[in-house]
Design a protein that fits this description.
Rossmann fold, 7-stranded parallel β-sheet, alpha/beta, 419 residues
Length: 419
């Protein structure tokens, strides 16, 4: 089956390249360093102890607390980080520079994977969340490189898909050294798709160990002074296609009662910055992009954050947060980032990628989950008009965050044992 899989993947390689080229028309970084996608890159100067794979921006941000702690050790390991997207790559470079080795993970082609592992040759491989690549797992196993899936999660939607091919997945899952699950529910799902009991450990979610102090918000503060430091600010973060329209509708409701309010709009994908700007202009709003900072003035109504790695800085100058990817069936994004800054958070009905976190926060009355977009404007208004409710949400979510922190130490212990 793996031979057939590899053959089909080889046949589809031109399609992958075409897809990258199409994406590169809006975001040129997608077509840069193309050779890395096939395992061709310069070998690291020092032997690699731990290789982390974080597919995109969200996974990179999730593993930062873990990597930071490893690098702070007296005998700090040498670390390599791979990503699949330019936004993830940019974040790695922004945070670590030359302190870690970074390349794109190659496609799961036998020659590309073998070339990649020959050059990297890590002592331990750590894959974030849910990445099951048959050739990568097989060749790591053949080279006696212990591979673990860390912060492992399996949404109900993904679980159904994996269950259908359980018999095909099982041989590769058995080649993993460990699966470190985020929650008991995630762990049970991994067992049901073929992971063995002695491979599974439920360590918790490293996203709770977020470090809110590791960002610079001086520029965000300067922009707030330019648009009016006393103006109320609402931020819609990590939004997707067909979601901004719903946010703009809610914003219109807000402006009817708070005329001076400003919306910070943060599209998830850089290639959509222009389309989102045009959408706002068609709705007759005064719009400025963050990269045109000199144009921000008191008349600005919407600021589009068209930069990478500054979300925490803009959270810090906001009053109320809507976390996107949740009014459309994407599965939501990380709500713990704004919560760590003491902000009230609203999400939509589609939070299946963060099911365990959302469930905990709802049980603690630390988050508001709305049924659909019709409730978004009303919920924004209720939080602006009811300060006691707003403060209660903040206190409850902060307590939930604090109660779940400390799991990074357990991950460090397990990884050091593997080393």
């Amino acid at each position: 089956m793996r031979i057939l899989y590899s053959f089909l993947l080889s046949v589809l390689s031109p399609v992958f390249i075409l897809r990258l080229w199409i994406k590169a028309r809006k975001t040129p970084a997608y077509f840069e360093r193309l050779s890395e996608r096939f395992g061709r890159f310069k070998k690291p100067e020092v032997p690699i102890d731990i290789w982390f794979h974080a597919v995109s921006l969200g996974e990179v941000n999730a593993c930062l607390p873990l990597i930071d702690k490893l690098l702070e050790q007296e005998r700090a390991p040498s670390i390599a980080i791979t990503t699949m997207t330019p936004t993830g790559s940019q974040r790695v470079k922004q945070v670590y520079g030359e302190r870690v080795f970074h390349v794109f993970l190659p496609y799961d082609l036998p020659m590309a994977v073998n070339s990649f592992l020959s050059k990297l040759n890590p002592k331990v491989a750590v894959v974030l969340e849910t990445e099951i690549w048959p050739n990568l797992i097989t060749f790591c196993h053949r080279r006696s490189i212990p591979m673990v899936v860390a912060n492992a999660r399996l949404s109900p939607h993904s679980f159904k898909g994996y269950q259908r091919i359980r018999c095909l997945l099982k041989p590769y899952l058995h080649k993993l050294r460990f699966v470190f699950a985020q929650s008991e529910e995630d762990g049970q799902r991994f067992l049901q798709i073929g992971v063995k009991q002695d491979q599974l450990k439920t360590l918790g979610n490293i996203k709770f160990d977020i470090k809110p102090s590791s960002f610079d918000n001086n520029e965000a503060k300067a922009m707030k002074n330019a648009w009016g430091r006393h103006r109320p600010v609402v931020i819609a973060a990590s939004t997707h296609e067909n979601e901004e329209q719903q946010v703009l509708h809610a914003f219109k409701q807000l402006k009817e009662l708070h005329a001076d309010i400003i919306l910070l709009l943060v599209p998830r994908h850089p290639e959509r910055f222009g389309a989102v700007e045009n959408l706002c202009l068609k709705s007759d709003y005064r719009v400025v992009r963050r990269t045109n900072v000199q144009d921000i003035e008191p008349q600005t109504e919407i600021l589009i954050i068209d930069s990478i790695g500054e979300l925490m800085a803009f959270y810090s100058v906001s009053d109320v947060v809507y976390v996107g990817g949740s009014l459309v069936p994407v599965g939501g994004h990380n709500v713990l980032e704004p919560i760590s800054l003491g902000l009230p958070v609203i999400v939509g009905p589609y939070m299946f990628n963060f099911n365990a976190i959302t469930k905990q926060l709802k049980e603690a009355d630390g988050i508001i989950q709305i049924e659909d977009a019709d409730f978004l404007g009303k919920t924004f208004l209720s939080l602006f008009n009811d300060n006691a409710r707003k403060q209660q949400l903040i206190e409850n979510s902060s307590a939930c965050l604090k109660n779940n922190q400390g799991v990074v130490a357990d991950y460090i212990k397990e990884i050091n044992l593997l080393l």
